[in-house]
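Moderator note: this is an archived Q&A kept for reference. The question asked for a predicted structure of one protein chain; the sequence and the answer are reproduced below.
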Amino acid sequence: MNEPHDDLGDPPATETAAGPGPRLDAFALHAALEDKRERDGISKRTMAREMMLSSPSILTRLSKGFNVSADALIRMLLYLGDTDLRPYIDLDSYRDQVDPAVAASVDAAREGADE
């Protein structure tokens, strides 16, 4: 039986919360969502409704670095029109633990997202 859950996600990333390693760059994802929202000329509430999020507060939490659930992440990526997660991966100081080709791919995607 499925347990009820929300899509508020985990608190901001720390080594004790999620362990060390590459993780979601909540700030980059929020910036991309805000760019689209401003281009579309809609409110945060409308954007949250269009993404079928349980609450607009999820966007506020994301802007503060909180993680979101996998379901919310999928909805956000689909709303952005691209399911490529690479622009939103933060390798931080764990780059040496990731295959160099993967790290290069992530870096290229992040640079492309900044343009």
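Archived answer notes: Helices lie at 15-18, 26-40, 44-50, 57-63, 70-80, 100-114.
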